[in-house]
Each structure stands twice: as structure tokens, then as C-alpha cells.
Amino acid sequence: TLNRYKLFFTASIHAHFVALLVALYRLYETRPNTYNIPTFLRLLEEKAAVPAETLKALNELYGQAKPLWVKVNILRNKAFGHRSKAHSVSDVFAEAGVTPNELRDLAELTRTLLNTATLAWKDTAHAFNLSSRNDTLRLLQDLKSHNEG
Fold it and tell me: pTM, whole model, 2 decimals?
């Protein structure tokens, strides 16, 4: 079934990968004129909007996320957001030294950080659910059953 729709799945995987990189990049960029996690954490601290122990935990999560974001930054800025003539995509991936598990880890750290912050700040959780696993499995099962029938 996947082979019958190879171009669709190849394009879809690439588009989702680039969208993940762009979203993670935006969340952690450090420009002061954008909405981002570093600015959010600074505001929480300046306004004393969350308990000190929560702020400490949020900063620890941010500290874990930052080295992973640096890798995303390299990919986004040299291969996907901009296309550098100086490096091949393979060179950029080698420079970033990123693994699929690290991207998963950054997404999970981000979800934990944002849910922890919103729970402490507004006593709510957005339940950031980043998994499309069940929908993907249903799609593949539907395609399989359609092609068998």
C-alpha cells in the first residue's frame, strides 16, 4: 500500500519534518521581538507569575532543550529555512549531529515545559498532544483495506 502512494508519503514525511524543525526553531529562538520560550520564561520571572520552584524546573527543562535546539537551528538555517550554497544537506546534518531521538526528545521537553508553565501560571494545561500515531495507523489501515477490496 505504501509503495502505491510512495510520492505522497515521501512528500508528506518531508513536509512534516520541515514543519517540525520550523516550529521548534520558532519556539526557542532568542530574538526579543518574537514570541518564544526564552522570553516567556523571562516574563514569568519578572512578573513572579509562578512559584520559584516551578521557575527553577522550567529553566532546567529549557537548559536541557537548548543544546538540542542549537542542532535544530543549524538544520533550519543552513538546509531548510535557508539553503546555503556552501554546504550540502548531508554536510549540514553532519554538522548538526542530530539524531531522530533528539528531535523527539526536544518535542517532548517542549511539551513538558509548556504544560508545566501553563499549569503553574494559569492553572490550566493545553494538553499539547504531539502524536499523530493513532490517526496515521488508521489511515494506513484504511488504505490497506481499500486496496484489498
Answer: 0.83
